[in-house]
Design a protein that fits this description.
Strand content: over 45%
Order of helices and strands: EEEEEEEEEEEEEEEEE
Helix content: under 10%
Radius of gyration: 16 Å
Number of strands: 17
Strand order of the largest sheet: 5-6-7-8
Structural class: mainly beta
Distance between the termini: 38 Å
Oligomer: single chain
Amino acid sequence: DRNNNRIAIWNRPDAASTTWSYQAQFGTSGSGNSNFTGPEKVWVSNDLLTAWIADFWNDRISIWSRPDAASANWTYQAQFGTAGAGDNNLSGPMAVWVSDDGLSAWVSDGNNGRVVNWTRPDAASTTWSYRTQFGSPGTGPSNLGVPAGLRLSSDQKTAWIADFNPSRVSVWTYS
């Protein structure tokens, strides 16, 4: 719910149902740990207990969790990224993709025209560190204009980037 600076959660009784019910919400407007300013995309872990949110105007990824899948009580856990263009910075993150083990996060860094990879040493850690990046601002074949969305293969060697400007899908591979 970007304009209300919160994450709203809806569910349905089963995959065939077309009836959705409000479950919970978290976050409020602002720049503190429990706040968002323009949340863009959400990535949720396979066990549905952790959510990574691309917080566009706060130039960060915000991480929230809940104790079990039945709980509607989401709490702030950690964040990474600060405003800027350096290795540890983000500027207008637009999407986040997280590995199945939750140890690696890839971020579409919209205003910096790149995709940045952050890692943590183990699943219990709340400390994320810059690892690598690819892309640079521009419209050429090795550039990214405004990377707005991304998806990686399970081995993290192929990335599909929705590049808002120029309107294209860019495919990157790691060998």
